[in-house]
Amino acid sequence: SALLLFISIMTMFMSGVVAIFEYDLKKIIALSTLSQLGMMMFSISLGLYELAFFHLLTHALFKALLFLCAGILIHGAGNTQDIRSFGGLSLNFPLVTVCMNLANLSLCGVPFLAGFYSKDLIVELACQYSWGIFVLFMMFICLSLTVLYSVRLTYLSFVGPYGGGTSISVCESDYSLVGPVVILSFTSLVSGPILSWLNFPAPVLIFLPVFLKWGALFFVGVSLLGMLSLQGLTYSYKWGAVSKFSGLMWFLPW
């Protein structure tokens, strides 16, 4: 229905914007979960029930991997969840870095990872519906927000300058921690095509104009390029009010 469509798109948009200004590691991952739940509701509002369930399955695998990797990082970084105190963790956590980035890329819908098979199918089938250009534009904006906060999380945690927090790499020698992470990393790679073959006996053929076919990848690319400039804006003084408004979940809890 139109009401469910509106609520799902606003949920995706709100959670994406809030995640861009958030510094709590677990909150960012929780907000990305909220965004993907909005994606599933968006699929249901279009009548694509099987695709929503398909996205639920693939999302469960790589999101479980994200939360496990986040737990290892928090445990190894002196029980802090503030990503501003991370930075350069790829040197201390090489395996977790690879696995977490794999989950992040899958969340973004990078081709041939688990998230791509369900997310891209929802986007392309949604492009065939005649809801108007506003719905399509908001859908692509929400996709780009997902890429934006995922790349920002990766940059601040693993690539950016050291934030001054403590970090110990003893976590990667604990097989009870690393074992499930490696297994879930494997499922994040192969679960997309396997679940697609199990759920859909016939391959899905979608005819779209070229600009719509490349729309999702275009917005993903623009988001990757715009991440660094937005990262600078987040720290600037003039964005303080926007950052506070987003950090308080648009005042919804109040």
TrEMBL record:
Protein location: Mitochondrion inner membrane
KW Mitochondrion (keyword) present: yes
Predominant subcellular localization, coarse grouping: mitochondrion
An MF annotation (GO) of this entry: NADH dehydrogenase (ubiquinone) activity
Gene Ontology BP annotations: ATP synthesis coupled electron transport
Transmembrane portions of the chain: 6-25, 37-54, 60-79, 91-117, 129-151, 177-198, 204-228
Catalytic activity: a ubiquinone + NADH + 5 H(+)(in) = a ubiquinol + NAD(+) + 4 H(+)(out)
Name of this protein: NADH-ubiquinone oxidoreductase chain 5
Organism: Daphnia pulex
Lineage: Eukaryota, Metazoa, Ecdysozoa, Arthropoda, Crustacea
